[in-house]
Design goal:
Length: about 300
């Protein structure tokens, strides 16, 4: 096994002469592998970032809720205090606090500007609820609030969390599909390049057959040359793609999803898998193309 790998890497000087060392097929194979590897790095980064985004959205929204109280100005303070008492005695609620006027103004500022007169507008009072790991019974809490605080409406963020998580999951799936399509496109382009090289060397192949060379011997020359070209191109494309991802802005709260596309921690090792995978795709694609083309030259 080791001897076979060594022979594959070092090559056979006589057999390698069957394949032109340069030309359009060489440039096409190297460029295709480099371009596809570059795109695969970004597709992989998008897939991983979508997974992190889904986890962050789920964690942030799953353990927090909002209670909205709508009542006349004279009853707002009493209903807010009653709602706080209900929440403090509810199992699964870790903390509950009413947002101040400044905090509510900050929430509305992106839509209405910084000069919004919160105190003079009939804006509902918001209460932030933080849950424990076990969580609380939303249906039971709604029944208690309906009886004790008629103007309270509980929003457990379910209607916000599920669509966001679904969108992030679909983005992650899209990244995986993109990687698979990139691999299939690479295989198709290398197959076409190998077939073109075999057809261009049809006369040389005929002479080799006349002197006793077997098709497996001829095919191995093409497989080795195109696999090494794909490996070299994929290495260049992976390094370039990794450098481009590294230069992207790091994750920031203000920037949201668009600033968190880079790899994190051990995930930086994943793009290294693109190079051997590209070599495997080139190996099997070229071998299949060589066998098919050689049978057609009989």
């Amino acid at each position: 096994m080791g001897q076979s790998i060594k022979l594959f890497i070092v090559g056979d000087v006589y057999r390698d002469r069957v394949v032109p060392p340069s030309g359009i097929t060489a440039r096409l194979t190297g460029f295709a592998a480099a371009a596809m590897a570059f795109l695969a790095v970004f597709a992989l980064a998008l897939s991983l970032a979508s997974g992190r985004l889904a986890a962050r959205w789920g964690d942030e929204l799953a353990r927090s809720s909002t209670l909205r109280i709508s009542a006349p100005a004279g009853q707002m303070a009493d209903q807010t205090a009653a709602a706080i008492r209900v929440l403090e005695t509810t199992p699964g609620v870790a903390d509950a606090r009413a947002l101040s006027s400044d905090e509510q103004r900050a929430l509305l500022e992106p839509w209405f500007g910084p000069e919004l007169p919160v105190e003079s507008l009939p804006i509902p009072q918001l209460i932030e609820i933080l849950e424990t790991e076990e969580g609380y019974d939303a249906a039971g809490l709604r029944l208690r609030l309906q009886a004790e605080v008629p103007g309270a409406v509980l929003d457990d963020h379910t209607r916000w969390r599920k669509p966001l998580e679904q969108a992030a999951a679909r983005l992650r799936l899209l990244g995986i599909v993109a990687v698979l399509l990139i691999g299939a496109t690479t295989a198709a382009m290398i197959t076409l390049a190998a077939q073109a090289a075999l057809a261009a060397n049809a006369q040389v192949i005929s002479v080799l057959r006349l002197i006793g060379a077997q098709d497996s011997y001829i095919a191995q020359a093409f497989v080795r040359r195109f696999t090494l070209r794909a490996l070299a191109g994929a290495l260049v494309g992976t390094v370039a793609g990794g450098a481009a991802v590294f230069l992207l802005p790091s994750a920031q709260e203000e920037g949201g999803f668009l600033t968190g596309l880079g790899f994190q921690g051990a995930a930086w090792l994943l793009p290294l898998l693109i190079v051997p995978l590209a070599g495997m795709v080139a190996f099997f694609a070229t071998r299949a193309a060589a066998r098919r083309t050689l049978r057609g030259l009989d």
